[in-house]
């Protein structure tokens, strides 16, 4: 337009004015015209500079938004593929077809212009190029280049300013979008501006921008104390990196800053989870969870793969666990997903080991520690202890799900997780729960075992139905089993019962060993034999719940008292001295206990041996054998 004015004026002067006069007038007017053109073009360029800042911000937001949408499509596609693999509904060919079908719909970026925007990029460079062309015509090309570069550099410097009045969490998107838009514009100008700005100049500006953004991130991350805030900013910065990498800009320093703060992020995330776990545990009433609808079952059971059967139960359904289990599962699953989100798109392709490391910490330190604290401070009754023990069994299945879930989200084959499987990370809490349950049951049983004091240790006749204490114990244990089998798996129930029966056996041996019992008769030992048979019969009766092999293992819990009674009732107790027989029949007995207890069976009148009593001055063979045993064992001692 300005050039057209120059041509028109020149034509009029040529027609109406003599050449000499024209020359003088041109020499006088042209500088003014040039100045007028410069001013007019400079004003248009100045308006463009103002406008391009707003355009750049919108351009950056649009570009990063497109990168976010593309990422979401990729994630949705991965989820669909993962679901298909889990359900085994798609063959390999179906999976491939599904991927190709998604790509054919344009989800992989098809139809997008070279700047990443349809319709030429959405910003107008005509005012800039017109100003540049006019300045070239006027012989002011270098001055305009310098003027343009200095103004754009000042704009970029202004873009680096972080407002102290607005939290960075609220302003970070605008901050990064403005810078992204700036360099998208500069990339276009480098490619289409005819030398207005060089690639080297833009690269130098980008190095300055990267350095500044890294400094801002370092400063802001150092102040943040909320994991979610770091994650939100990290996600946006990674999208910024994806966006500008498409234009050839090196973004590795930005990604390095993100990686540098992964430890802080996970520490904050672990801290958040610790608080949530503490709240979940404190809210638990130690009651079995009631689910009235199928969606509740799906949300609390199927979503964590803690079901024991593929058959959907009838509703209402009473789960064997309390609310702690799904509440903690949700916390851990959220931790995994947040951890993977932070590690994804951060420049590190293989990050499963990092996610797994922090997941191990969450489970083996934080969750295990919280459960240990709960067990040691809040469990006061058998029913509560039983519920916590049942919860731990379900959590063992949940932990398998956690590591599979982390592997799937990290893109790691499940077979690698199976190969690298470690021990149950909540083993301390599991053992403590079972120990607490066993301890409380032992306390209950001890109340009945106090009736051992009523045993007639010098009885002349054995009791055919056993002593009172054992009958009370059997009634309690049978009642316990009828309740426990509803929530405790057989293996846990077996371990707990085995511990309790072993405790009862120790108490029986302890009674014979203690100072209260000065002497006892064979008939009293026969009554104890009946007591032990009743306990063994109880163990045998658990075969429907356990198995014949496990029921036999349960019987071994009373092995010490059984072997002691067998020895005391044996016609040849000196066989205990035979290493082969001792290993086969008396391997749980301590020889010092045998000496102390055996001495109480001795009686100078030999009344205690009943049918073994001596006649005609002949010593009872059993008494002689027992004396030999005692003497030899004392020699060994």
TrEMBL record:
Keyword Cytoplasm included in the entry's annotation: yes
Alphabetic keyword roster: Cytoplasm, Exocytosis, Transport
Highest classification ranks of the organism: Eukaryota, Viridiplantae, Streptophyta, Embryophyta, Tracheophyta
Listed InterPro entries: EXOC6/Sec15 (IPR007225), EXOC6/Sec15_C (IPR046361), EXOC6/Sec15_C_dom1 (IPR042045), EXOC6_Sec15_N (IPR048359), EXOC6PINT-1/Sec15/Tip20_C_dom2 (IPR042044), Munc13_dom-2 (IPR014772)
Gene Ontology terms: biological process: acceptance of pollen; Golgi to plasma membrane transport; intracellular protein transport; pollen germination; pollen tube growth; vesicle tethering involved in exocytosis
UniProt-listed PANTHER family: EXOCYST COMPLEX COMPONENT SEC15B, SEC15
UniProt entry tagged with the keyword Transport: yes
Subcellular location: Cytoplasm, Cytosol
Protein name: Exocyst complex component
Species assigned in the record: Malus baccata
